Amino acid sequence: MINRLAPLTAIAAGALFFPALLAPPASAAIGDFTAETQVGAPEIGNLVPCTTTGKDCLVGAWLVGEDQHTPASLTLNGRLVARTDNGSIWLTYNWTPTTTGTYTFTATQGASTKTITVDITKVGPGLPTGSAS
C-alpha cells in the first residue's frame, strides 16, 4: 500500500524546520525603558514616574540580547537626544521638562525599537504652563 500522505508530511516537516535555519541571528533588544524621578533623600528615596515640570527625570533603557553592545539611540518627540557608541548596555538621558504635555521617547538599537510616552501634568513651583513640542 502506498502512503499518499508521505510527501505532504515531509513538506510540512520542512516548513517547520527550515525557517529556523533561515532566521536572522539573535540580536540586540530594548529591555526595561522608563522615565523616572527621585522622591526623598538619595539614600532612601523612591523612583516614581516623571509628571512635573522643573523636576529632573532620568530616561533610561537597558540594552539586552546577544548584540547588546552595539550602538543605540534615544529620541524625544523625534529629535535625537542621546546615543551610545561605546559598548554600554545602559542608554540614558537626563531631562528636565519645562512645559506640561505628552512627550514621546523612542529607543532604537538595530532593528529593535521601543517607545514610551511621558505625561507631564503638573507645573513645578514658579514655572509657566505650556505644552509639549
Tell me how many strands there are: 8
Secondary-structure class: mainly beta
Straight-line distance between termini: 74 Å
Alpha plus pi helix count: 1
The rough form would be described as globular
Detailed description of the structure:
The protein has 133 residues and is mostly beta strands. It is built from one helix and eight strands. The relative contact order is 0.21.
Summarize the structure.
This protein is mainly beta and 133 residues long.
Helices and strands in order:
Elements: H1 6-22, E1 28-39, E2 46-49, E3 57-65, E4 72-76, E5 79-84, E6 90-95, E7 101-109, E8 112-120
Antiparallel strand pairs: 1-2, 1-3, 3-6, 4-5, 4-7, 7-8
Which key phrases capture this entry?
single chain; 133 residues; mainly beta; 4-stranded antiparallel beta sheet; 8 strands; 13% helix; globular
